[in-house]
Amino acid sequence: MIMSLKRSNRICYLMLVFSILVAIPVVTLAGDPTTDSYWLLRIKSELVDPEGVLKNWSTRNDLCSWNGLVCSENRARILVLNLTGSGLSGSISPELSRLSSLQTIDMSMNDLTGSIPPELGQLQNLKELLLYSNSLSGMIPSEIGLLTKLQVLRIGDNMLFGQILPIIGNLSELKFLGLAYCQLNGSIPLEIGNLKYLNSLDLQNNSLSGLIPQELSGCIQLQRFTAANNRLEGDIPTSMGKLESLQILNLANNSLSGSIPIELGDLSNLKYLNLLGNRLSGSIPSEINQLSQLVSLDLSSNNLQGAIVLNSQMKNLEALALSDNSLIGSVPADFCDKDSNLRYILLSQNNLSGNFPLELLNCSLLQEVDLSDNKFEGELPAGLDKLEKLTDLALNNNSFIGTLPPQVGNLSNLMTLFLFGNKVIGEIPPEVGKLQHLSILYLYDNQMSGSIPKEITNCSSLTEIDFFGNHFSGSIPPTIGQLSNLKLLLLRQNDLSGTLPPSLGNCKKLQRLVLADNRLSGSLPPTFRFLSDLFLITLYNNSFEGPLPESLYLLKNLKIINFSHNRFTGSIVPLSGSTSLSVLDLTNNSFSGPIPSRLAMSENLIRLRLAHNFLTGYIPSEFGQFRLLNFLDLSFNNISGELPPQLSKCEKFAHLLLNNNQLSGMIPAWLGGLQELGECDLSANNFNGTLPAELGKCSKLLKLSLHSNKLSGNIPPEIGNLTSLNVLNLQRNNLSGSIPPTIQQCKKLYELRLSENFLAGPIPPELSTLTELQVILDLSRNSLSGEIPSSLGNLVKLERLNLSFNQLRGQVPYSLGKLTSLHMLNLSNNHLQGQIPLTFARFPLSTFLFNDNLCGPPLVSCSQSSSSSEKKWLSNSQVAGIIVAIVFTATVICLVLLYIMLRIWCNWRKVSISSSGNGRSEKERQEEIWGNGNGDAIRSLDQYWNVNTMEKKGHSLTRSCIFNLG
Predict the structure, then answer these.
(1) Which residues contact 943 (CB under 8 A, 6 or more apart)?
(2) Among residues of the chain, what percentage have pLDDT more than 70?
(3) What is residue 935's predicted lDDT score, i.e. its pLDDT?
(4) How far apart are CA 832 and CA 925, in angstroms?
(5) With contact defined as beta carbons under 8 Å apart, do 659 and 680 qualify?
(6) Rounded to 5, what percent of the chain is helix, strand, coil?
(7) pLDDT digits (tens, 9 = 90+) for 712-761
(8) Where are the beta strands (DSSP E) in 558-671?
(9) Which of 593, 547, 550 is nearest to 566 (CA)?
(10) Contact status, residue 275 vs residue 298, Cβ threshold 8 Å
(11) What is the residue-wise DSSP string for 99-114?
């Protein structure tokens, strides 16, 4: 029993010791809530610290040694919490308010989320609160207004929203207020004017609206005011002229209007003035010249008018931007002097005129000059090389003439030269080759000529060359490969000839190669395989020939290829190596062979045009993978087979052109599922079967051309659902039945062709509602019957009407005479009768032939036609019979007359020979033949006609006749 009690006591003792040992760390962790360390550890627990910045925040370490803390002199309290840029995430703990001695909180440039705790308003000793560049959200708590000792408040670059509260005006000690790059809205509170010690006010990149308050002038120590990229409106307050300490004023990209206040000229300390992107109007006030400390002035993108009135008083001005206004005149003569500090002058997009402002040549420190998009004219000055420090010269889109002066080669620092859109002529001076820093050379849209100098390939820094739309001739310099940094080579629309230099393959950084619209020839060099960065190449409208190098298959980054209108032959497989293709156009070449199914690997393909080649085989079923394909043109090839059903997955089809091939089978119903289809041309193939009614679902269809196939059956009434249709061409098929009246729903039709089918029944009068019909209405060569609807006279825009070769009856409606736009009409080969409208007299006779009884010009007049009531117009067969009978009768008569004349001539010849043997005179012989009396005459004539009797009397007479007619 005793032993048992001892054992029990021992166990209790051990448990007590264990409990004490366990309890010790619990008490230590809990700490003393009256100490800053206690609350700092709780704040730490709400933060994520991937970089271990807070690792030494532990009771094992002295509080004042913790990272980011500054203690008071007695080391008892925390005065500064600075964790800027520590990679922290999580939220800001409200328990920061427990650190009542805090004077500075800097948790900027982290990834903190959540809202700003309103409890921070309890930190009555706080002087600096920096929470900018986080991901904080919510509204600015009004409790911030209780921090009356606050001098710095920077909480911008967050996702804060809501308004700037007027209570901000209570922060009477505030020197720096940063609320930029948030989502704040509403107006700038008037109470801002109470902050008389405010040095910097940064409100840019928000959604603030309303007026700039006049009360802002109360911030008499303000040096920096930026409110750019908001929605502020109204005038710039004149009271801003009282901010004598202001050095930076940035109100860019708002909706400020009115004129620039002349009071701004009183801001004698102003160094930076940016008012660009507003709606300011009026002229530039001359008082701006008083800003002698001004370094940068930007008034661009406003509605300013008048002349430039600025002068050399602004000794410190380095950057002047007046672009995109309506300024007139030129640069003032006294704008630049020898002591000018001007480095950047941007005057583009105005109405400035005159010759190149020679005054600028005095600004020897100029680095950038932009006079583009004005009305400057005259020749470029040879003295341009006075601007020795010039790096960027933009003179584009003016009316400069003359040549590019050779002195431009002396601008050794020049990096960009924009001269496009002028009237510059002549050659590129070889001196350009001295510009070793030249990176961009744009000379396009001028009238320059001559060859491209080989010296240009010495400009080793060149990255972009654009000579589009000039008259450069000759060949591309064979040393082009020396431009190893070249990324863009655009020589389109010139007169260049010759072959592509193989050295082009050395331009391994080339991304865009545009050589279209020239006279280049030959084959592509195999060195193209080295252009691995190439993503755009256009060679169309040249005379390139031969097969493509197989090495082109290695160019995996190609996105846009246009080789159309050349003479390339062979397979297109070498162009199928890139899976990045978005445009491939090989139209009008002589490519042959099948279409490679590998093209389907370019899932981003938008346009595929292979028309006018000699391609064979089938349309690859893999093309169903083209989910973005908008334009498919395989027309004018020898492609056969049926349309693969996989194409039904190409839901972006807007243009489907497969005409003039050997395609067969039925037109698939799945075409009706292509809701974006705007142009469908399957004409001149071997399609058969009926026209699917599902086509009526293609609500965006503008053109449907199925002519020259073997389609049969009726035109489905669902065709009327194509209310956007402009062109419908179904001619030269085997369609039958009547024309569906529902076609009247296609109100936008301007071309309708249904000819050369087997359509029957009357012409639907509903066609008269298609008042946009203009190009043609062709119903010819069918079996249409009945009368021509008089309502067709409503088609006043119609230019061509063909109703020939039908079974139409009745009169030509006089209402058709209102079709004054008609310049082609054919009503022939019908059963029409009656008077033709007088306005149709201008058409040729063939327009009306082979009808039953039409009259009026250009046919016979109707009065002649009706002179006999029994008189009828003969049928076509009767007319033909009469003509044949007349011709036959005339031929017989001619032959008989010819026979008689020959007989008379032969008899006369016999009598003449016989009489000459008796020695009688010619007169006697004539009297004997014709006789003096009737009896003798008769006998003589009997003798004349009786040729056979005479032949019996004298055998020699028979031989004297040329033709033996006996």
Answers:
(1) 911, 929, 949, 950
(2) 88
(3) 36
(4) 68
(5) no
(6) 30, 25, 50
(7) 999 999 999 999 999 999 999 999 999 999 999 999 999 999 999 999 99
(8) 560-562, 567-570, 583-585, 590-594, 607-609, 614-616, 631-633, 640-641, 655-657, 662-666
(9) 547
(10) yes
(11) -TT--EEE--SSEEES
942 contact partners, CB below 8 Å, separation of at least 6: none
- As a whole number, mean pLDDT of residues 225-230 equals 98
- Output the CA–CA distances (angstroms, integers) from residue 296 to 247, 272, 273, 322, 742, in the order listed: 11, 5, 6, 11, 70
Residue 948's pLDDT is: 35
- Per the CB < 8 A criterion, the answer to whether 300 and 325 are in contact is yes
Amino acid at 621: S
Mean pLDDT of 674-687: 97
590-610 tens-digit pLDDT: 999 999 999 999 999 999 999
Confidence grade of residue 834 (pLDDT, cut at 50, 70, 90):
very high
Q: Are 56 and 40 in contact (CB under 8 A)?
A: no
Q: In this predicted structure, what is the pLDDT of residue 4? A: 43
Quick: pLDDT tens for 534-589. 999 999 999 999 999 999 999 999 999 999 999 999 999 999 999 999 999 999 99
- Choice between 902 and 28, residue whose per-residue pLDDT is larger: 902
- Torsional sign, CA 284, 286, 291, 292: positive
Report the C-alpha gap between 114 and 160 in whole angstroms.
10
Q: List Cβ neighbours of 93 (8 Å cut-off, separation of 6 or more).
A: 42, 43, 46, 47, 117
Opening angle at CA 708, ends 705 and 710, nearest 5: 110
All residues at 6 or more sequence positions from 901 whose CB lies less than 8 Å from its CB, including other chains = none
The residue assigned the tokens 């800053």 is 36
- H runs (alpha helix) in 1-114: 2-30, 36-44
Q: CA 463, 469, 473, 474 torsion: positive or negative?
A: positive
Helices 922-930, 876-917: axis angle to 10 degrees equals 130
Tell me whether strands 727-729 and 209-210 are parallel, antiparallel or unpaired: unpaired
Q: Please report how many Cα atoms fall inside a 13 Å half-sphere around the Cα of residue 125, on the Cβ side.
A: 14
Q: First CA to last CA across the chain, in angstroms? A: 182
